């Protein structure tokens, strides 16, 4: 009889965790993607400045204009062309922006494919990991926890510039699966970490409070 009650209790806790995920999940992901995308853009911009050319700069500007006009599929095609023909700095940055345009166009599966291709390409390591992180942030709300873990496995280790983002994603994966205790433990570590970026720390604190922990 006690086993039955334990199973019921586990189901209730899982339902509560999923309920919290539904309430807070999209807010967390939207904020996280903005932070990571900005960081990735900064890294890309540095590379771009070192290897810029007038024509490729014009193409990047034109694609960005299409995004501002909500012509996301056209923008995606423009970014894809630049990713195929541009120099190394432009290729990586264009691929990241292509994926974002695809997501905005409602083609998330295609966007993940772009991220995954970039992650195994021969671009600088910062871009590869950025692609994994951005794919994982999309999948946390549109895929499975296992798909998220596959992308960020190994990235969460200390010393990696994306480690805290990966740790946040792993915690959110636990929460998505109803593993409340594991999620709280990971989020608490982020909340209390001295070197954790302010945005991640603030989101971790909000979720820990929402989950009823201190």
For the record, give the distance between the C-alpha atoms at the N and C termini, rounded to a whole number: 32 Å
Q: Considering DSSP H and I runs of 4 or more, what fraction of the residues is helical?
A: over 70%
**Low-confidence region ranges:** 1-16
The secondary structure category is mainly alpha
- Along the chain, the helix and strand elements come as HHHHHHHHHH
- Oligomer state of the chains in this structure: single chain
Number of strands: 0
Strand content: under 5%
The biggest beta sheet is recorded as: none
CATH architecture: Alpha Horseshoe
- Number of H- or I-type helical stretches: 10
How confident is the prediction overall: mean pLDDT? 79
Number of domains: 1
CATH topology name: Serine Threonine Protein Phosphatase 5, Tetratricopeptide repeat
Walkthrough of the structure:
With 214 residues, the chain is mostly helical. The protein has one domain (23-210): Alpha Horseshoe (Serine Threonine Protein Phosphatase 5, Tetratricopeptide repeat), CATH 1.25.40. It contains 10 helices and no strands. It has helices spanning 2-50, 54-68, 72-85, 88-104, 108-119, 125-142, 145-152, 163-176, 180-192, 198-210. The chain is elongated, with a radius of gyration of 19 Å. The model is unreliable at 1-16 (pLDDT under 50).
In short:
The chain has one domain (23-210): Serine Threonine Protein Phosphatase 5, Tetratricopeptide repeat. Helices cover 81% and strands 0% of the residues. It is built from ten helices and no strands.
